[in-house]
Design a protein that fits this description.
A motif ('KMSKS' region) lies at residues 231-235. A motif ('HIGH' region) lies at residues 47-56. This protein has 400 residues and is α/β, with parallel strands linked by helices. The protein folds into three domains: 3-220, HUPs (Rossmann fold, 3-Layer(aba) Sandwich); 246-321, Tyrosyl-Transfer RNA Synthetase (Orthogonal Bundle), CATH 1.10.240.10; 331-399, RNA-binding S4 domain (Structural Genomics Hypothetical 15.5 Kd Protein In mrcA-pckA Intergenic Region, Chain A, Roll), CATH 3.10.290.10. The protein has 16 helices and 13 strands. It has helices at 3-13, 22-35, 54-68, 99-113, 128-143, 148-151, 155-163, 169-185, 197-209, 246-254, 258-268, 273-284, 289-304, 307-321, 341-347, 354-362, and strands at 18-20, 40-45, 72-77, 122-126, 189-193, 216-220, 331-334, 339-340, 366-368, 371-372, 379-380, 383-389, 393-399. A six-stranded mixed sheet has the order 1-6-5-2-3-4, sandwiched between helices. Helix 4 (99-113) links the parallel strand 3 and strand 4 (122-126). Helix 1 crosses helix 2, helix 5 (128-143) crosses helix 8 (169-185) and helix 8 crosses helix 9 (197-209). The chain starts with a helix and ends with a strand.
Length: 400
């Protein structure tokens, strides 16, 4: 192994869950160095939601590292596979998206990914390019290359089959279509989350069937969301979108537990392993974990906004912690004074329902102009007031 390849492997393997097959990737890198032919590195994302979140950036960061090593990065938007819906990790059939929904979501995907990737050095592709062209005949020929028994080896399919939970035929096609993407792109290396391992392996097998050298596979850990339990997901509401305002992003990062903070450092921070280990030692010796969490929050905010935005976000967070009003407060105009406190909180968008609003009042989590509200029967008179729910929700309400 050359020194260049040894260095590249060290960068590639940091934070990785699994590398399949390590010796094959070394040989690909050696050949790339000798022939001055960069590897083709693929990441596919289905545009099932409009926003990318920090969980997505775990694999995007690794893609950027490979880009900086000189390899060709292919950012694949699964506009065709989105219409099937990835069944990975699901115990029910995913509702299909319309072409209009997919196109709307896809518009923002690459722009957001470019906050991590170097857009000028990224090849952007859509899998409808080759999937639409397959047609019915091509789809049948592709399906003939894989058996039902092998598809049902997937853990989520096996569980659903044993439980008698319906599995639609189109769901069985998803791994094949994702695998065919690797054939169409002649991929050398594909990245994905740990939940994608089966799909990535299908791509490897299909490439053999089509006479290509099989791709290597790099799986990255799934980042837990703000709850510290479920993986980060917009549908679970435990996410931090990479396009969120700096103050919101910082406050959400500060809300994670001290224990989860280290997981976020490992998967999101660009600091060296040695520096992170030094932080852990400082905390063990008595340093306040909050200080270390602030550094993480500022690093992430600076990455997606700016250094000044990170400094302002810390100042805003400290002001809120002391009971002050943040700089950015949404303004809301309401009618119907005098208005019940439950209705006011719901209509101002501070609580999802009046029952939740009244529960927050009962728990002492509601303030008007800084004063705690404890009366659930309160009728709020006309005027302009700052309403706060919990630590992070504010609104400047004009009530008439």
């Amino acid at each position: 192994m050359t020194e260049t390849v040894r260095t590249a492997m060290s960068v590639i393997k940091r934070g990785v869950e699994e590398l399949i097959v390590e010796s094959e990737l070394e040989q690909k890198l050696l050949r790339a160095e000798k022939c001055k032919q960069p590897l083709r590195v693929k990441l596919g994302l289905d545009p099932t939601a409009a926003d990318l979140h920090l969980g997505h950036t775990v694999v995007l960061n690794k893609l950027r590292q490979l880009q900086d090593l000189g390899h060709t990065v292919i950012f694949l938007i699964g506009d065709f596979t989105s219409m099937i819906g990835d069944p990975s990790g699901r115990n029910v059939t995913r509702p299909p998206l319309t072409r209009e929904q997919i196109e709307e979501n896809a518009k923002t995907y690459f722009a957001q990914a470019s906050l991590v990737l170097d857009a000028k050095r990224t090849e952007i592709r859509y899998n409808s390019e080759w999937c639409d062209a397959l047609g019915a005949r091509g789809m049948i020929q592709l399906a003939a290359k894989y058996t039902v028994a092998r598809i049902l080896e997937r853990e989520d399919f096996t569980k659903r089959f044993k439980a008698g939970t319906p599995i639609s035929v189109h769901e069985l096609l998803y791994p094949l279509m994702q695998g065919y993407d690797s054939v169409a792109l002649n991929s050398d290396l594909e990245l994905g989350g740990t939940d994608q391992k089966f799909n990535l392996l299908v791509g490897r097998e299909l490439q053999k069937d089509y006479g290509q050298e099989p791709q290597c596979i790099l799986t990255m850990p799934l980042l837990e969301g703000l709850d510290g339990v479920e993986k980060m997901s917009k549908s679970k509401g435990n996410y931090i979108a990479i396009t969120e305002p700096a103050n919101t992003m910082f406050a959400k990062l500060m809300s994670i537990s001290d224990e989860m903070m280290w997981r976020y450092y490992d998967l999101l921070s660009f600091r060296s392993i040695e520096e992170i280990a030094g932080f852990k030692k400082e905390v063990e010796q008595g340093r306040n974990p909050r200080d270390i969490k602030v550094l993480l929050g500022q690093e992430i905010v600076e990455r997606f906004h700016s250094r000044q935005a990170a400094a302002d976000a810390l100042q805003d967070f400290d002001r809120r912690a002391k009971g002050g009003i943040p700089d950015e407060v949404p303004e809301v105009s309401l009618q119907g004074a005098p208005l019940g406190i439950g209705q006011l909180l719901k209509q101002a968008g501070l609580c999802p329902s009046t029952s939740e609003a009244l529960r927050m009042v009962e728990q002492g989590g509601v303030r008007i102009d800084g004063a705690v509200i404890s009366d659930k029967a309160l009728k709020v008179d006309a005027g302009s007031l700052v309403v706060q729910v919990g630590k992070r929700k504010f609104a400047r309400v004009t009530l008439t």
